[in-house]
């Protein structure tokens, strides 16, 4: 979910009343980032408080949280918390049929992985026990219909879900979350709980259930930032994705429909969050419960004619971040540079739990209590990928510098005057001194956290790339039939 797709973040088109209300009674962070804008490594950072190259050993989607890493679930369990997860975990590797799930310390899990586990072990959808949501759909007579529109997880063609709204994945997640909370109140009265409620949405496929598919008029959607021609001076993977996913075939009208459905997915999710929060209130738990809303990464949804994540443009690397509850200031905003790796040490501190080892994330609890207290971070560093190419960024909130391995591409953006990042200032002669200082800063940040794979003796890793060859790449990942 993009950072800017919330009403409380100034988006006048989208409808997110429940998340806006959460922000009004808590702290809204305006400069929150994913340390690695890809699903698996970002989630590993949330769980461990460390950057992905530390907690999984890799910066791509193939990593498993390493044994011996501190885990938020175990820290909280050591203080008496019961730990539950409902929805998407995306912890790899997935377990084969009959083997215990890899859940990294959660006591109970109601799982959906958008068909990924079935794709790996059961492509015909004959087995049960792999994904709880898949099993649920079979029990209510809708087995297999979550993908009956023929659109895959990384296919952005918009299509309404064939499922009734009450069987859509986010409705199921809200129902299961409420059921777990109610069961906890009966089985463990007085014991604290940690609930991970994780929706796969608004990740593609953009398939809101009816009538949400008609909620937003595509003709009134905000235009994407930039044009495809601007990709020539930016991270090459964004341009490659245009051809590997056939994004170059999408018309301006198609992108507007994509954005309308993306917004509809978010509004549906907002309503489900509202259902859960109302039940929390009805149970009398608000005064004792901390709520944090965030995302593992964003989505370009048409910016510069492309989509997805991985890059360090705002649409990809910036995330929503709202915290509310006891010990957190109400109705405040923060411009501090924060990241997903800060969640684990912050929650542990607020719960009085020991972590057991130093982590790279920061404890934000004092800042949340009083946002005028400074966060001990002047620069935010983010990284991503190893194969085929690495990329990294640093930002102080005003200036953002991005270095990408293909052809040693450099990007420089003035976040204050160009939040849409329309103008790459890296090639302008007047910015040579600034670029030089930011290269030094990037190297220093990479060395500080041990992300040395992007570094060489005298600079940064560089790989020649033939961008013209992208146009002849075969299309992949369209219309995946996973179950």
Fold topology:
Blueprint: H1 17-24, E1 26-29, E2 32-33, H2 39-48, H3 52-55, H4 72-77, E3 82-87, E4 108-111, H5 116-121, H6 132-139, H7 169-187, E5 193-198, H8 236-244, H9 252-282, E6 291-294, H10 314-317, E7 321-324, E8 332-334, E9 338-339, H11 343-350, H12 365-369, E10 380-384, E11 391-395, E12 399-404, E13 409-414, H13 432-449
Structural key phrases:
483 residues, alpha/beta, Alkaline Phosphatase, subunit A, 4-stranded mixed sheet, 13 helices
Order of SSEs: HEEHHHEEHHHEHHEHEEEHHEEEEH
Strand order of the largest sheet: 6-7-1-8
- Helicity range of the residues? 25-40%
Beta strand %:
5-15%
Q: Give the biggest beta sheet.
A: 4 strands, mixed
> Per the principal axes of the C-alpha atoms, what is the gross shape?
globular
Instruction: Examine the coordinates and then state which fold CATH places here, giving the name of the CATH topology.
Output: Alkaline Phosphatase, subunit A
Mean pLDDT: 95
Summary, kept brief:
By secondary structure, the chain is α/β, with parallel strands linked by helices. It is 28% helix and 12% strand. It has a single domain (7-378), classed as 3-Layer(aba) Sandwich (Alkaline Phosphatase, subunit A).
